[in-house]
Structure formats: structure tokens, C-alpha cells
Design brief:
Largest sheet: none
CATH superfamily: Sodium/glucose cotransporter
CATH class: Mainly Alpha
Radius of gyration: 23 Å
Distance between the termini: 58 Å
Order of helices and strands: HHHHHHHHHHHHHHHHHHHH
CATH topology: Sodium/glucose cotransporter
Shape: globular
């Protein structure tokens, strides 16, 4: 019997992930282990799991596809992400690790808000948990769409079957192993993603001959399509650039990334983790942009191979590796795409399930639940969230980048300003926090409609849509500030805040 190298390599990868899940299951003793790994992650795992859980299928599919279609002007997204990620590591990571521990060893963001704001913390916790469930379900759907497109390509399955199988691949190890499985798998998956994103651009250049040949093909493409692919500002107004760069604002409010900070062994690990994480991110984003940009030259030179990309530009990476590599290497690189999808999807499923379990089931229905019961409720919640996300992912024509953009903006606007105020300003009140979450989240939901219907789609004289995270973030921040100065914070809350700040200064 002849072995298909691509399928065999793909199968080995899935078995390895399952093995990690089983090993993590044996190491999971209680609820804290299941949702935060017992707060004992080192610098390397903290950095790579934060990066891998952040960079979902959009990194290997959505971003290269956008660069391929419109050129380097789309790289403002990557630039904004790099700036936002650095600021998040520099100013939020260590503080959040210490503050969540000081406030009753909070295991989730809503739980942290509950203890941070005292008597007004309960409604803040409830609304925060609802926002997390809403936007994570949408986020999970984007990961499932990306996974289904991959399985359709590899196994030649109908979309619905591919959707089910790709989702199961992630659900199984998340269900079994929890946070430890997700974090360990993220470390492996981050390595695979880096390998794929660095190797593919090199192979594109080698296949075309020399860099001069690449430039020649790019010039031909620009003449034919009338697009200045090499320009950072081609057809990019101020609004377009701001909207793309504003993706960086989202980092301050992403629960699945913030959970990695909360799970670190201590604030001391953050310095090394930041260096590792930012280096990994810079290389990965550069590779993704290079794939989309060099892909323009490749398919200009080989138009007969571009049919799949013409049909769906987000398939550019998958199409390239089939033409550039041997079947064995194709299997490894396809596994890298699956790794990107699985790493983010698993982190999102776990965060949504922990929110459902800790912030609803345990808080309102079963305060007496023991550790074993909470772990199994989290596992059942993984299945529930995954089931709803599967329903939302039924449309195979969904844009991966579009789904991610809405969910990213939702978290960034609802939680980003609040987290910054919470960690840096002791006079932030619970009612201000509640107002900020609602204003930020609702602005993201209604801004696209508001901009089109009320403003006629025109912002400062430009007709391009303004990414909803910008008005959402600004309005949320303003509401938190003004409501806070109109209220007061109990002395005991301010005292705990000061203790957390002192401890952070000692540990960092």
C-alpha cells in the first residue's frame, strides 16, 4: 500500500497533539490547573503560548491574502499589532499577574473585576462574562472557518464535513488537557508556524531565480492591475492607515492573551518572555507579509497555477506550498496552518468555558461545587461553546479576517480601556467599569451601522469606514474617566491596589 506523505505527516502531527493532551490530563489536579495551569508557566511557554494563541489562522491565511490582493499598504495591520503587543508586554503583563493574585487569586478577568471593585463588582463581573461569551463565540467561528478550509484542501472533503473534523481536532485535546495542554501545544505550534513563515518566502525567491526576477514580476503585476503593491500608502487614506494600525489597541483587552500573563510563574518571568515573544512575533508577521507580497510575483510568473488564489485569496499560502515543496514538507507546512488555527481556537474555547463555569455556574448556581465538578463542567462548557461556534461557521464564504476583526474590536474596546484604568488608576470605580464595558462593546456592535446610516459613511471628509475599535476604545475610556471622577472608591479597595503596586515593583 502506497503512503500519502502529506496525509501521513498531517496524521502524525494530530497524534502528537493528542498525546500532549493526554499527558496534560494526567497533570491536571484541580480547577486552577485546568484553566490557568496552576500559575507556573515559565518564560518560554508564556511567550510562545501568548503569541500562538494570538496569531490564529488569519496570520497564515487572512494577512497574506490581504497583502496579495492590495499590497504592502495592508501591512499597517502588522505594524499596529507589533506596537500594541510590545506595550501590552511592557506595561500590562507583569502588573496583571500580580494584581490578579492579590485580589483573591482571581482565575478569570470577570473574577478579577469582581474583587477589584468591591460591592459594585458583581454586575461588572456578570456583564464582562457575557461580553466574553458573545465575542469568543464569534472568534471561535473564525477559527473553525479557517480549519475547515484547510481540511477541505488536504482531504478534499465537502465544507460541512471538513468543518466538523477540523473542529474536533481542537476540541478533543482542549477538552482533555485544559490549560496545560493548550499552553504546551501552543509552544510546539508556535515553532511550526515560525518554520513555515520563514521557509516559504525563501523558497518563493529561489523558485523565481533571483531578487531581480522577483522585482520584474512585481512590476509587471503593478502595470496590469494598476496597484502600487510596493507602496505603504497606495490607495490608503489617513482613515485607512489608522484603522489598520488600530488593531494594536486590541491587545489590552484580549482575555485569551491576558490569561497567559495571569498564568506565568511570577512577574519576573515577563522580561524574558517579552523578548522571546516579540522576537517570535516580528519574524512571523514579517514572514506572513513576505508571503503575500512575494506571492504576487510568483503567480504573475505562473498564472496557470493561480486559479485557487483567484477563487479565494486567503488560500494563497496553501496554494504556494503545494507548488514549492515536496509532499513530505507540504504535510509539515499544512500542519503549521492547522497549528495556527488550533492554538487560537483552543485558547478561546478554554477561556469561554472557564468564564461559563467560574463566572456563572460556580458564582450563581453551585457555590459548593468541588474541584472535580468544576473541571468537568469546564469540559462540558467547551463542548457547548464549540457547538454554537460550529453553527455560526456554517457559511463557507465567511471572511476569516472579517470575523476576527469584529471579535478583536469587541474585546479591545470593551476591556482594553478598563484594564488599563484598573491597573494604573486606583480611583477607577465599579460603575465606571460597568459603563466602560457597555459603551465599548455596544459601540463596536453598532458603529458600522451608525457610521453608514447617520454619517453617510464619511469620517473627517473620507468615505472609508473607520475600524470600530477606534471609537469604541475612545468612548469607553472617556466614560470610565468621567464616571470615576463622579464617584468614590472604598479605602480598603485603594489599600489593596497600593499593596499590589508595591508587590509588582518588588517582583519585576
Amino acid at each position: 500500500m502506497q503512503i500519502n506523505p502529506t496525509l501521513f505527516t498531517f496524521f502524525i502531527y494530530l497524534c502528537l497533539i493528542l498525546g500532549i493532551g493526554i499527558f496534560a490530563y494526567l497533570r491536571t489536579k484541580n480547577f486552577s490547573d485546568y484553566i490557568l495551569g496552576g500559575r507556573r508557566l515559565g518564560s518560554l511557554v508564556t511567550a510562545l503560548s501568548a503569541g500562538a494563541s494570538d496569531m490564529s489562522g488569519w496570520l497564515l491565511m487572512g494577512l497574506p491574502g490581504s497583502i496579495y490582493a492590495l499590497g504592502l499598504s495592508q501591512s499597517w495591520i502588522a505594524i499596529g499589532l507589533l506596537i500594541g503587543a510590545y506595550l501590552n508586554w511592557r506595561f500590562v503583563a507583569g502588573r496583571l499577574r500580580v494584581h490578579t493574585e492579590c485580589y483573591h487569586n482571581a482565575l478569570t478577568l470577570p473574577d478579577f473585576f469582581l474583587h477589584r471593585f468591591g460591592s459594585t463588582g458583581k454586575p461588572v463581573k456578570t456583564i464582562a462574562a457575557l461580553v466574553i461569551l458573545l465575542f469568543f463565540t464569534l472568534y471561535c467561528a473564525s477559527g473553525m472557518v479557517a480549519g475547515a478550509q484547510l481540511f477541505t484542501t488536504v482531504f478534499h472533503l465537502p465544507y460541512q464535513q471538513a468543518l466538523l473534523f477540523s473542529a474536533l481536532a481542537t476540541i478533543i485535546y482542549t477538552f482533555i488537557g485544559g490549560f496545560l495542554a493548550v499552553s504546551w501545544c501552543d509552544t510546539l505550534q508556535a515553532s511550526l508556524m515560525l518554520f513555515a513563515l520563514l521557509l516559504t518566502p525563501i523558497m518563493i525567491v529561489l523558485s523565481l531565480g533571483q531578487w531581480s526576477d522577483v522585482r520584474e514580476q512585481l512590476e509587471h503585476a503593478m502595470q496590469m492591475d494598476h496597484i502600487a503593491y510596493s507602496s505603504l500608502i497606495h490607495n490608503a487614506s489617513i482613515i485607512t492607515i489608522l484603522s489598520a494600525a488600530a488593531w494594536g489597541l486590541g491587545y489590552f483587552g484580549q482575555p485569551h492573551i491576558l490569561a497567559r500573563f495571569m498564568a506565568a510563574a511570577s512577574a519576573k518571568t515577563m522580561k524574558n518572555a517579552r523578548r522571546i515573544g516579540m522576537s517570535w512575533m516580528l519574524l512571523c508577521l514579517s514572514g506572513a507579509v513576505a508571503i503575500g507580497y512575494l506571492g504576487i510575483a510568483y503567480f504573475q510568473a505562473h498564472p496557470n497555477q493561480a486559479l485557487g488564489v483567484y477563487a479565494n485569496r486567503e488560500m494563497i499560502f496553501i496554494e504556494l506550498i503545494h507548488y514549492l515543496f515536496t509532499p513530505w514538507v507540504v504535510g509539515i507546512l499544512l500542519s503549521a496552518i492547522l497549528a495556527a488555527v488550533m492554538s487560537t481556537l483552543s485558547a478561546q474555547l478554554l477561556m469561554a468555558s472557564s468564564t461559563l463555569t467560574q463566572d456563572f455556574y460556580h458564582a450563581y448556581f453551585r457555590r459548593s461545587a468541588n474541584q472535580r465538578e468544576l473541571v468537568w463542567m469546564s469540559r462540558l462548557a467547551v463542548l457547548l461553546i464549540a457547538g454554537i461556534a460550529l453553527l455560526l461557521a456554517q457559511d463557507e464564504h465567511n471572511s476569516i479576517l472579517g470575523l476576527v476583526a469584529r471579535a478583536w474590536a469587541g474585546f479591545g474596546a470593551a476591556f482594553g480601556p478598563l484594564l488599563l484604568f484598573t491597573l494604573f488608576w486606583k480611583k477607577t470605580t465599579g460603575w465606571a467599569a460597568l459603563t466602560g464595558i457597555l459603551v465599548g462593546g455596544l459601540t463596536v456592535i453598532f458603529w458600522p451601522m451608525y457610521q453608514k446610516e447617520v454619517l453617510g459613511g464619511v469620517i473627517f471628509g473620507f468615505r472609508e469606514p473607520l475600524y470600530e475599535i477606534i471609537p469604541g476604545f475612545l468612548l469607553s475610556a472617556c466614560s470610565i474617566f468621567f464616571v470615576s471622577i463622579a464617584g468614590s472608591v472604598p479605602a480598603v479597595i485603594q489599600e489593596t491596589f497600593q499593596q499590589a503596586q508595591t508587590k509588582y515593583q518588588q517582583e519585576k
